[in-house]
Amino acid sequence: MIEILNATLLTRAKDTGALVADILHTLKSRSVIGTNLLDIDRWAKAMIVEAGALSCYVDYEPSFGRGPFGHYICTAVNDAVLHGRPYDYTLADGDLLTLDLAVSQGGVAADAAISFIVGDSEPPESVAMISATERALAAGIAAAGPGARVGDISHAIGTVLSEAGYPINTEFGGHGIGSTMHQDPHVSNTGRPGRGYKLRPGLLLALEPWVMADTAALVTDADGWTLRSATGCRTAHSEHTIAITGDGAEILTLPKHARP
Question: CB neighbours (10 Å) of residue 1?
């Protein structure tokens, strides 16, 4: 299913995106050495409930998972990259943490992810990997607009990631979003320009470049959800929800300090 949102729903989408961004960046500020992943999950739940919104994750039960996800946020540490199920783990200095959050409010969902390093350590390889996903995300957004094709976005993302030297996994990528979290079209993190669905104003997309330092292969944890690099290498993941407008694309999941 591909949804095209009207003006009323687009206004709601902006509100949902702002909520997702503000929760994520509040959680980032609280994610320090000694923070437990289960505390991050509890904080996320409290902020979602306080806002009168709904979690897209807690009852999420797709074919690739094992039962309902059961938590309010994805917390992926170091070699974990996607669908990180919160567990009893205390963050340490230098951990690379990804927070991925999807929320529905007013009948419209928004989805975003940030990767950052905990504490004062700045391992150069981790900093470079996070930067590559952020630059790839910016390139994908720049390629989006009315009349562009999904393949144009994929090509822009993949070019940045490949030039940075990272293998690219095509099993999981970006996606349409609207009344539900995951919709068509699928937006691969690499692809050929000029191919795929033609973008239209009112379309929402969640773009999410993610990489693993030295492999494109994933393994699944015993929890049935958390996806990790097959080699144990570190990973990074950046994501925004965008709306296709009449003349380009608008980022809906910017935190307050970064909004125009």
Answer: 9
